[in-house]
Amino acid sequence: MHARRARAALSSTLLAAALVLASCLSRTPATQTPGSADADASPTHNFVWPERLGQRSLPDRGHLHLLPTDTRGWVGYRVPLGMAIEGDRETMEALGPLADAIAEEVGHRDVGLSFEQARSYIVVPTDDGDTPTADARYSIFLSARDPVTQDGSGTARIANIQRTWFRLTLPASEPRGLAVVLPGMFGTPEDVVDRLDSLLLERGWASLRMLAPSSRTTERLPISVDSEASINSAARRAAVELDDRNAECAYAVRAAVRDAIETYPSLGGLPRVAIAMSGSAIMLPAVIAWDERDGSEGYDAAVLIAGGCHALRIARESSYADWIDAVRISVDPAMPEDTVRRLEDAYLQHSTLDGYHVAPSISDRPLLMVHASADRAVPAATGDLLWEKLGRPERWTVPVGHELVFASVMLRAPGIVSWLEKAVEAESTAESDAGGN
What we know:
By secondary structure, the chain is α/β, with parallel strands linked by helices. The protein is built from twelve helices and 15 strands. It has helices at 2-23, 89-94, 96-106, 190-202, 228-263, 279-291, 311-317, 321-324, 339-350, 355-358, 380-389, 402-436; strands spanning 26-28, 63-66, 73-78, 112-114, 121-126, 136-145, 158-169, 177-182, 205-210, 221-225, 272-277, 301-305, 327-331, 367-372, 394-398. Helix 4 (190-202) runs parallel beside helix 12 (402-436). 47% of the residues are buried.
């Protein structure tokens, strides 16, 4: 009895101490002007955007399908090892325009469909949950990749399907702008995402919420190095696959934003901001870069929470590696001690869409990083690296790990939204002043 009480008291003390730490915050103002990120990866860096089957007739390299109006919520699950998904009736119906585009592109309909493989994450919309409103709009983005050529060359006989789910909600009053909310892996941390989503709506923002990163983002990817020759090939494979996952998230978000603006045209002339967490914060530079690749106006400001860059290093060092169970890196113990370093260096040479390369291209706007200095899930050093690549924007640092930084976000959600609003207002004022000169 006394032992249980002692353990309970200790747990309460540790929790209280953790919350105190989470409430501690040091603010570092932006130390460079927007757009002055280091020249190692300038905005002219050659980004290679992976092609998709059917893209010749699909402007967003995929198709966005509106889900039934009685959709009220969702659940998610991971595909177990040794299993793959089969398309159900609803999915096959949603695939119609994409299948037509693929058939037109390759010149035949003899293309098999391969759905998500082991460790992918699937969202299942449901009609359970809150009462639906006319202002809640659920959708799914579908794309297809040629697993052999990956270049849409017309030789495909199998199309690898992947999916991304969204919910668009309008505020009760006229919207002041569009906020794109991107959660961490598997849609986590759900309570924090819910809090930010609700707060944005209360403050008059239309909220476009990605329910979870694209389905194949956590698909199992084994990377093996067992010889000198395999270092470069393994690095190239990692770069191709991880770049593809960044790109898929970017394609999906762009399609969902386009749909939001086409459905509610007034959103097109309003500010647009983004809040990205954890895994999505790692991908956010690519999301913004794809959206603005043609010089069009995109995001006025963004917040990156617990993000980093150098995805291969994050996958290798993350304390979440076993939980996420996506990229599995194995190096033969007989290989030289510097093998991992050489693998990581080669990965950066092959990658074009890692935040390491893309981040400088989005530094020309107000950015805020919320950083956990003791983060082991997205190792803190990779967060420092992203901050450097972004040009040292404003940063709020909390002396905790990955989980508790989100406890801090729960406490400071109003401040984060206020930061976005002030940043947008300052940008608007600066543009007005420039236009008057």
